[in-house]
Specification:
Blueprint (H helix, E strand, L loop, with lengths): L1 E5 L2 E6 L2 E4 L7 H8 L4 H8 L4 E2 L7 E2 L6 E6 L3 H10 L6 H9 L4 E6 L4 E2 L4 E2 L8 E2 L2 E7 L5 E9 L1 E2 H6 L4 H5 L5 E9 L9 E8 L2 E9 L7 H8 L9 E4 L17 E6 L3 E7 L1
Parallel strand pairs: 6-17, 8-14, 9-19
Antiparallel strand pairs: 1-2, 1-5, 1-14, 2-3, 3-4, 6-7, 10-13, 11-12, 11-17, 12-14, 15-16, 15-18, 18-19
Helix pairs in contact: 3-4
The structure holds 2,5-dioxopentanoic acid and magnesium ion (MG).
The site of 2,5-dioxopentanoic acid has 11 residues, from strand 6 and helix 3.
């Protein structure tokens, strides 16, 4: 089951049919009330009789976020550990990445408030003071206020690699700025874990041509999603639930940096494709 947030409300794709709600106003609070449900899949099925068949025209999609915080896990794939050790070596930070990759406690960091999040087909940004920026294609978890994974979406953890590489203490500046995160195109609602064979793929297009592409699978994710969530919820509450990005396993080579007008496409087959343009 797929749940989309649209300009006029929401759209639910279920068993080959599309349904929509018809409420005079469907704002961020209404979206929160919907997606924070502890039994989201069951709740949506119960709503079906009150919904209308959706029209054939494609509605404008919004990021599937209301008032949730977005958090992120880091160095959960060997590829990310490797690239970051290399880029921070001269700053003396290389060892930290290796240690956090093998430690019991994961790296978790605050990524974005809703106003910093871009939706499908919207602009993501590179910082004006960064020389080297990359997208990080990541599986994003929708987590209920009680700490249960109720759905999945696609996340882009845009990162300024030169700023992070200069000093690990610059991480919040490398990671958190306007339009540094994208989410979408929908929430794939399921309380079942995604299979390890699930593929995450990235394509970056420049002037319509593929400039970089790469892929990985969830088999390369070192930590179980629920373990990441359990650490995040230690002494931390999320009244509207939250989104948690699970780390990147695709890092373009050092010779690659994003440029303005590049198109970023991230695909996870069960969820769809999240496309964004760099501004
Ligand atoms: O340690 C820095 C951030 C790591 C990260 O964002 C990732 O591995 O995806
Ligand atoms: Mg990341």
């Amino acid at each position: 089951m797929k749940l989309f947030r649209t300009l006029g409300g929401f759209l639910l794709e279920y068993q080959g049919n599309s349904y929509t709600n018809k409420e005079a106003s469907f704002d961020a609070e209404a979206w929160d009330a919907l997606i924070k449900h502890h039994e989201l899949a069951q709740h949506l099925v119960q709503l079906l009789p009150s919904l209308q068949p959706a029209s054939a025209s494609a509605p404008e999609l919004l990021a599937p976020i209301g008032n949730q915080e977005v958090w992120a896990a880091g160095v959960t794939y060997y590829r990310s550990r490797d690239a970051r050790m290399e880029e921070s070596k001269s700053a003396g930070g290389g060892d930290f990445y290796d240690r956090v990759y093998s430690a019991e406690r994961p790296e978790l960091f605050f990524k974005a408030t809703p106003h910093r999040v871009a939706g499908p087909n919207a602009r993501v940004a590179i910082r004006d003071d960064a020389r080297w920026s990359v997208p990080e294609p990541e599986l994003a978890l929708l987590v209920s206020p009680a700490g249960r994974i109720t759905g999945y979406t696609i996340g882009n953890d845009m990162s300024s690699r030169d700023i992070e590489g200069e000093n690990p203490l610059y991480l919040p500046q490398a990671k958190v700025y306007d339009r540094s995160c994208a989410l979408g195109p929908c929430i794939f609602v399921s309380s079942e874990p995604l299979p390890k064979t699930t593929e995450i793929s990235l394509e970056i297009l420049r002037n319509g041509e593929i400039e970089f592409s790469g892929s990985t699978t969830l088999a390369a994710l070192k930590r179980e999603p629920q373990v990441l969530v359990d650490f995040l919820f230690r002494n931390n509450s999320f009244p509207n639930g939250c989104f948690l990005l699970t780390g990147t396993g695709i890092v373009p080579p050092d010779s690659f940096g994003l440029r303005k007008a590049d198109e970023i496409r991230i695909t996870i087959p069960q969820i769809g494709t999240l496309a964004n343009f760099v501004a």
